[in-house]
Design goal:
Signal recognition particle alu RNA binding heterodimer, srp9/1; 2 domains; four-stranded mixed sheet; 2 helices
């Protein structure tokens, strides 16, 4: 059994997940919009373009997401999506892309006692991230 990350967005799910797929090398495997539902009772509140469910394969993991219209949406908290790029070049590229127009940067990309590079931030879509590149350092 493997956990699946499920993200909620405030009306910009398709834009955010497409950006994540392009930036992180993921593959969008499915998108179901509100308008794809068979009848009105099967739809969530809001327009036909809202995403009801979307899936992206990222390495061996699945990342799923949807829009959460109106009062259904709440700001993500209490977790971060943690990624570990394989090279310093990839770390710097991904960090630059994901922090462009970031809502907050709690820890800018820098060295720690456990990693050659580590960062914590919330991207422009409201998703909290951690980037961890241990490099030559090891974590226990």
């Amino acid at each position: 059994m493997e956990p699946t990350i499920y993200l909620y967005f405030n009306g910009n799910c398709l834009e955010a997940m497409t950006f994540y797929a392009e930036t992180l090398g993921g593959e969008i495997t499915g998108v179901f919009r509100n308008g794809d539902a068979p009848d009105a009772a099967s739809r969530m509140p809001g327009g036909d373009d809202l995403v009801m469910n979307m899936a992206m394969k990222l390495g061996g993991a699945m990342v799923m997401a949807s829009d959460a219209p109106g009062e259904w949406y709440s700001k993500p908290q209490g977790f971060s999506v943690s990624i570990s790029p394989k090279t310093m070049t990839e770390v710097e590229r991904v960090y630059a892309a994901l922090t462009r127009d970031a809502q907050a940067i709690q820890m800018p990309l820098g060295e720690t006692f456990w990693a050659e590079r580590f960062a914590m931030f919330t991207d422009r879509y409201g998703t909290p991230w951690m980037i961890n590149f241990t490099g030559a350092k090891t974590m226990g």
